[in-house]
Design brief:
Elements: E1 3-7, H1 12-23, E2 27-32, H2 39-45, E3 49-53, H3 59-73, E4 78-81, H4 96-123, E5 127-132, H5 145-165, E6 170-177, H6 218-230, E7 237-240, H7 242-261, H8 263-267
Parallel strand pairs: 1-2, 1-4, 2-3, 4-5, 5-6, 6-7
Amino acid sequence: MTTWFITGTASGFGRSVTRQLLERGDSVAATLRRPARLDDLKAAHGDRLWVRELDVTDTARLRAVVDEAFAELGRIDVVLSNAGYGIFGTAEELTDDQIDQVLAANLVAGMHLARAAVPHLRAQGGGRFLQVTSQGGQIAYPGFSIYHAAKWGLEGFFEAFAPEVAPFGIAVTMVEPGMADTPGIPNAPAAEEHPAYRDNPAILRPTDVPPEDLISDPEKVAAAIITLAEQDKPPLRQALGSDAYANIYASLTERLAALENGRAFALTTDKG
């Protein structure tokens, strides 16, 4: 039996992972802003589900909940940083508050969760840390820029963080799902449209994501996340979904080609 700590368990991947773990007999420390949304799972699984209210943008509260979970539950084998949300809008359309809130929830909270968990994981001799970054950490859609800024930031942070904590027996994996059939995209907020951008076909708007594009099964994504946490040598990154694989592959291929095209110019700045 394993014990997990998971943020963002009200719906989507977080709830699915929580439910699957409980159904197979594991224990979960689940956090979310409205704990009542897990009352059904609590009634079914009792003490194996430890629930706390948490807004991940409240860093002091986040640290307190992490400390409390390790103190009360003892060893926690896996920490899954899953909380977050997207917002539609061009850079100009977004308000200052929207930018601050998205970065706080999607970027800063993940970094603080990792920092809060490390002393406990190190003290117990290791563990797993999984961060959901999504395909949005490797690709970018115009009209979704602040979400991508947060997810690309997470990718950079955890690429550096992983070798820092590897000597402590802590393995890190960034999980990169594509578009899944969860409430995330359909319920994502949108900034007020500016008329100057109305005729730009490149910009992603909520109406540009039909249900048939949400191709991944959230239950299968949740099962894959659990499998990743149990691998002896987990990857640093793992795309999930055919769209995530294809989109990330195309983006990386294009970026490599552009890098190679600029090779001669890059070398002109060397000494000598």
